[in-house]
Amino acid sequence: MDSMTMLLFGATGDLAARKLFPALFRMFLDQKLPEPFWIVAIGRRAWSQSRFRSRVEKSLLDFCQDRSADFSRLPAFLQRVEYYEMDVRQPQAYLNLHQYVRSGEGERLIGDNRLFYLSVSPDLFAGIAGNLQSSGLSQTNGWRRLMIEKPFGSDLASARDLNRKLGEVFAEEEIYRIDHYLGKPMVQSLGTLKSVNPIIHAVWNSPYIANVQITASETIGVEERSAYYDQTGAIRDMLQNHLLQLAIMTAMHVPGRMTAEEVRAEKRSVIEAMRPLGQEDVRLHVVRGQYSNGSIDGTPVCAYRDEAGVAPRSMTDTFVAARLFIDLPRWQGVPFYLRTGKRMNEKSTRIVVQCKSSEEAELPNLVVIHVSPNQGMTLRLNLHAPGMPGQLEPVEMAYVPNQKHLPESYEMLLAEAMRGDRTHFAHWEEVELAWRWVEPILAAFAENRVPLHHYPAGTNGPDAANRLLEEDGFTWWLDP
Ligand code: BG6
C-alpha cells in the first residue's frame, strides 16, 4: 500500500475516540496500515501532544477490549499520531498546516498521498474542502482522498448543494462517503452469499420470496445528541442511508466482477426501481413513532420529549417503518419492510428473507442475516420430526462466526479507502436517489400528515408497524 498521511479533522471528538482510533490501532497490530504512515490528528482544543496521546490511549483501552489486542505495541502506534491544534474555520491556519504536513512528510519519507478524514459537524465539510484547496493542501503529486461521515445533507436540496461544493475540490472518484453499515462484515458477505450458492441464488426472486424484513433496532435513546437528533429523526438518521443501503444490497443483482463501477451500476438499477411514494402513499406505507416512557432491561427511562435538549412538544420520529416495492421483474410484488427505532427492546440489525410457504408447511423458510451486534446467518427449513411421520418441525441451521476475529466496520472501510477501493462507499447517485425517495416522507412528517404513534420505551415500536405487515398477511419475525 502507498505511504500516506492521514489528516483526521475532529480528532478529539467522540467518533474518533470510540471508533476511528480503535480501528486504526487494530489495523496497526494486524499490519494493515501502510508504511510509512502518519496521522495528523487535528482538533480545536489547546492540548499538548502528551495529553492527546493519553486520551487516545484511554480510548483504546476502553474500546479495544473485545479483541486480544497487544497493548505492548501501543507506544509504537502512538508515535505515528501527532496532535495539531487548529481552528478549522480560519483559512490562514491551513497554510500553516500545509507547511507542517510537508515538513513531516519530508522527515518521514512519505510520498505525496493524503487521506483527509472529516469527522466533524457536516456544516464544516464544504468550508474545510474549500480551505484545503486554497491552501494547496489538496494539491498533491500522488493521490488525495476525502472521507466524510454522514449526514450528507438534510434533504435533497442541501445534499446537492454540499455535493456541488465538494465537487469543486474533489472528483467523485476521490470522495469516500461513509455509510458504516456497508462496512459491516455480514453486509459485505451478502454478494458472495447470493452469487456462489446456487441454493440461495436460485430462490432470490419473486416466485420464491414472500417479503424481506430489515430491522435496525436500538435500546439506546437520544443520549447526548438531542440537538442533532431532534432536527433529524430516525428517517434521516437511519432510514435514508443505512436501511436503504441494506435493502439495496439485499436486492442487488451481483455483478460478475465486484468492482466499484459494476457494483455501483447494479445498485443504481435497484434504487432507480424503488417505487416512488406519492403524497397519499406516505400514509399508507409509512409509520412514524416516538418513544414514551418505559423501561429498558428493567431500568425506567424517560419519554423522548422529556430528554434534555428535546422540545417538549417535539414531533420528531424516533421510530419509522416503511413498506417499499422495487419495480424490477425479479422483485415484482415483493414488499420490503424497513423499520428502525431508538429505545426498542433489543439492539439488533438483521435482514430476514421470508420465502413463500408451501402448502404442507405451516412455517415458511427463512434466511436470516444477523448483521449486528451478533453476526452470522440462520437458515430455517422444515423437516419431519424424527419418528413422527407426517409431522413437520422447523429446523434451524446456524452459522456463527468467531466473533472475536471479525473486524469492525471502520477497520474494513479505512482499509478500503487506503487501498483506493470504493466498492463499499456511497456514490453520489445513490445518495441523491435515496434523498429523492424519502422526500415525500420528509414533507409528510413536516406537515404532520402522518400520525405520530407513541410507543413505550423497551417495546417493539408502535402497533401501527405491526398492522403495516398484517395488511399483507405477514408479521415481523422477532427472534427467528
Ligand atoms: C449512526 C446513527 O449512523 O448509527 C446513530 O447516527 C445510531 O443514531 C448508529 O445509533 C447505529 O449504528 P450501529 O452500528 O450501532 O448499528
Structural account:
Residues 8-188 form the Glucose-6-phosphate dehydrogenase NAD-binding domain. Its EC number is 1.1.1.49. This protein is an alpha/beta fold and 480 residues long. The protein has 2 domains: 4-149, Rossmann fold; 182-409 and 427-471, Dihydrodipicolinate Reductase, domain 2 (2-Layer Sandwich). It is 37% helix and 21% strand. It is built from 14 helices and 17 strands. The strands form 3 sheets. The protein has a 9-stranded mixed β-sheet with strand order 16-15-14-13-7-12-11-8-17, sandwiched between helices. The protein is globular. It starts with a strand and ends in a 10-residue tail after the last helix.
**Main sheet: which strands, in order across?**
16-15-14-13-7-12-11-8-17
Low-confidence stretches: none
In terms of DSSP E residues, the strand content is 15-25%
CATH T-level topology of the largest domain: Dihydrodipicolinate Reductase, domain 2
State the share of residues found in helices, binned by percent: 25-40%
For the termini, the CA-CA separation is: 42 Å
* Strand segment count: 17
What's the CATH architecture of the largest domain? 2-Layer Sandwich
Which whole number gives the mean pLDDT? 95
EC number: 1.1.1.49
Domain Glucose-6-phosphate dehydrogenase C-terminal: 193-477
Function: Catalyzes the oxidation of glucose 6-phosphate to 6-phosphogluconolactone.
Binding site for NADP(+): 44, 87-88, 150
Task: Write a concise keyword list for the protein shown above.
17 strands, 2 domains, 480 residues, G6P_DH, 14 helices, oxidoreductase, Dihydrodipicolinate Reductase, domain 2, Rossmann fold, G6P_DH_NAD-bd
